[in-house]
Every structure is written in structure tokens, then in C-alpha cells.
Specification:
The N terminus is likely disordered. The longest helix is centred in the last third of the chain and has 17 residues. The chain is mostly helical and 150 residues long. α4 crosses α7. 73% of the residues lie in helices and 0% in strands.
């Protein structure tokens, strides 16, 4: 039960002072990657907490690349239940090359997505980072017609 909800991990992240945070974050990143399959919702809540702490305190754990590899996958970008504000935090952690990879993956996912929730979040994310949203708007219009009963 404790592992499923990752309670101890959240407590450890909350209790440490800023000097210990890099080591704690590295430990939590390893835990997330190792145990995500048994944590509720594939550990997305723990990942969000890790990302929030990284962005809040501007900390770069040495194993941040491992999360980066996970985030920059088609499967993660297509299925992670994240809001545009969370995508922005992730985007801001990436290098310019990684940002391009993320946008390229999103552009491919937009073409085949049948989920308006996903498309509206990506559209808001694109607006915030000043990327064109025409393709997303076109896809949303298509889906409105596709799903209409008339």
C-alpha cells in the first residue's frame, strides 16, 4: 500500500532542506524509474513532484537525463495525464535539441490523436511557448465533426 501510493517518497521530498535536495532527488528519480510500474498511475504523481522541486529550486540532479529519456518518448508524451502548465515546466528543463525533439514528437502525435483533451492541452502548451497551433486547431475541428452524431 505504501509503495503503491509512494507516501514515504513524498515525505522524504518534503522533509529535506535545500542542501540535501540534489541527493534526495537523485534517489527519488532512481526509485521512480525502478518502481513506476507498481506505483499508482505509473508514478506520475511522484514524477510531477520531482519536476516541481527541480524547477522551483533550479536543481539539476546528475541523473536527470534518465527522466529526460523517459519524457521524450512517444508513449509518455501520448499517455501521461499532464496539463499544459506541467508540459511547460518539463519543456523549460530541456536543452534546445531536446525541446525540438519534444515538439517533433508532439507534431506527430497531433496528426493521429483522437483525444480532444490531449489536443487542447498541447494547443495551450504551444500557445505558451509561441509555436503555431494551426495544425492542432484543424485536428480539433476534424474531431468535432468525427464525433458529432448529425
Amino acid at each position: 500500500f505504501k509503495k503503491y501510493y509512494a507516501f514515504e517518497n513524498f515525505i522524504e521530498l518534503a522533509e529535506n532542506n535545500k542542501e540535501n535536495l540534489p541527493e534526495v532527488l537523485e534517489k527519488q528519480i532512481e526509485y521512480y524509474l525502478k518502481e513506476k510500474s507498481v506505483i499508482k498511475k505509473n508514478g506520475i504523481s511522484l514524477l510531477k513532484r520531482i519536476i516541481n522541486i527541480i524547477t522551483k529550486y533550479n536543481i539539476k540532479p546528475t541523473n536527470l537525463k534518465k527522466i529526460r529519456d523517459e519524457i521524450l518518448s512517444n508513449n509518455f508524451l501520448a499517455t501521461a495525464p499532464l496539463f499544459s502548465s506541467e508540459w511547460i515546466k518539463i519543456y523549460n528543463l530541456l536543452t534546445d535539441v531536446d525541446k525540438k525533439i519534444m515538439i517533433d514528437i508532439f507534431n506527430k502525435l497531433i496528426i493521429n490523436s483522437y483525444h480532444s483533451y490531449f489536443l487542447y492541452n498541447v494547443k495551450q502548451f504551444y500557445k505558451t511557448i509561441k509555436k503555431p497551433t494551426n495544425r492542432i486547431s484543424t485536428r480539433i475541428k476534424y474531431l468535432k465533426k468525427f464525433y458529432s452524431l448529425s
